[in-house]
Amino acid sequence: MRELTDPRWIHLKGFGFLILGLFAAACIFLEHPEWKLMGLVAICVWAFARFYYFAFYVIQNYTDPSYRYSGLGSFVKYWVGRRRL
């Protein structure tokens, strides 16, 4: 697969994820209209987003600038390999 480099397509992809996430949240809320559930879903989404940021940006820019990740599977391989040392 080619690398996505056109800023217009990158922005469209980002807003597509936003729309998809809002749609999924609306479906959850319509199925189970409970504020407690929506709060827990929001915390879950926030925590996974922070982990994703940690897995790519923080590790790559602060702890190991030489390593480049290609996805979460690559991060898991790096982390498991690192733990054996």
Topology at a glance:
Elements: H1 7-31, H2 35-63, H3 72-84
Task: List key phrases describing it.
2 domains, flat
Question: Could you describe the 3D structure shown?
Answer:
- With 85 residues, the chain is mainly α.
- The chain has 2 domains: 1-33; 35-85.
- Helices cover 79% and strands 0% of the residues.
- The chain is built from 3 helices and no strands.
- The protein has helices spanning 7-31, 35-63, 72-84.
- The two termini are 33 Å apart.
Q: What separation lies between the terminal Cα atoms?
A: 33 Å
- The proportion of strand residues reads under 5%
Helix share, percent: over 70%
Structural domain count:
2
Mass-distribution shape: flat
Question: What is the CA-atom radius of gyration, in angstroms?
Answer: 17 Å
- Taking pLDDT < 50 over at least 5 consecutive residues as the criterion, the unreliable ranges are none
Number of strands: 0
Report a brief summary of the structure.
By secondary structure, this protein is mostly helical.
